[in-house]
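WARN retry 2 of 3 for item q-0093 after timeout on previous attempt; input resubmitted unchanged.
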Amino acid sequence: RESAPLLSQMGINLFNMGVDVTLNELHTRAGNQITLMGNLPPRDVLASGTPIDIEQAAIAMIRDLDSRHQLLASCGGGMPPGVTTEQIQAFMRGIRQAHQ
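OK item q-0093 returned
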């Protein structure tokens, strides 16, 4: 969190954060200078959730944003092992729904 305002000064233009900070907070702290990648919880939602849980979490993640500018929807911090195609498809369905 504390280093977020310095990310663009360090030459970082894409940041995949963990789930301990919200997308809204990081957008504010980084000054909307970098593209954010995230922020669905990888282990607790994407890997462990049912397709319905994942879809609903993805919808909420997008709809809760103050700004959708400079965002790549993903799981926060990286893809966990064991995620199924069905779970990834549920995530994608949720993202598409949130944008409708």
